[in-house]
Write a structure and sequence with these properties.
207 residues, alpha+beta, RluA_PseudoU_synthase, PsdUridine_synth_RsuA/RluA, single chain, PsdUridine_synth_cat_dom_sf, 3 helices, 32% strand
């Protein structure tokens, strides 16, 4: 499902959750639900939404100031050049084609993208990688890993040369951590990928 309504008009997560809240809490009229962050449609995992405008503002600020921590795991083709590293690229999005590319620093409309990765295991030409995002650019993980020769398994958009049609993108948001917007307590949430290939070829850590 897309995170929010798009041109496909397919059912989206934001409106599905609004409908659920309306029924579950017997709320009259429109239901407020704030979109704090997004996942690409082929990506699974844990997300947070805000049930009040105050919570939405504070959580969005946490995203902007990098106090909302997101951890992903991905299965990629090949093996990264180093067991752990920080990747820095400048990314530019073509809004006409909805694709992102790595460009030279300072190009007009380009934005810096930063992530840390750690190799968790490799076998049969595939690797399991843990990723921590420092920025939230569109398609960031997919494009940055492809730039170092580690195309994501199942990525038809940025890896059609090595992936087969019908394969699902192997990228999962496994952990989310942030301060509760009103209680001020640190909250931690986890979600593990499904037990099917290529995930089943590796041991996914409990983050």
């Amino acid at each position: 499902m897309p995170t929010q309504e798009d041109d496909s008009r397919d059912p989206d997560l934001l409106n599905a959750l609004k409908a659920d809240i309306k029924i579950r809490h017997n709320k009259p009229g429109n239901v407020y639900l704030g979109l704090v962050h997004r996942l690409d449609r082929p990506v699974g995992g844990v997300m947070v939404f805000a049930k009040t405008s105050k919570a939405a503002s504070r959580l969005s600020d946490a995203v902007r100031t990098r106090h909302l921590d997101k951890t992903y795991v991905a299965v990629v083709h090949g093996k990264p050049p180093q067991p752990a590293a920080t990747l820095r690229h400048w990314l530019w999005k073509d809004t006409r084609t909805n694709t992102v590319s790595v460009v030279k620093p300072g190009q007009h409309d380009a934005k810096e993208a930063v992530l840390d990765y750690k190799l968790l295991g490799s076998q049969d030409g595939l690797s399991l990688i843990q990723i921590k995002l420092h920025t939230g650019r569109p398609h960031q993980i997919r494009v940055q890993l492809a730039a170092i020769g580690c195309t994501l398994y199942g990525d038809q958009r940025y890896g059609s040369a090595v992936n087969k049609p019908g394969q699902q993108l192997a990228l999962w948001a496994t952990a989310l951590s942030f301060e509760h917007p009103t209680l001020k307590e640190r909250m931690h949430f986890r979600s593990l990928p499904p037990g099917q290939r290529p995930w089943s070829d590796f041991t996914i850590p409990e983050l």
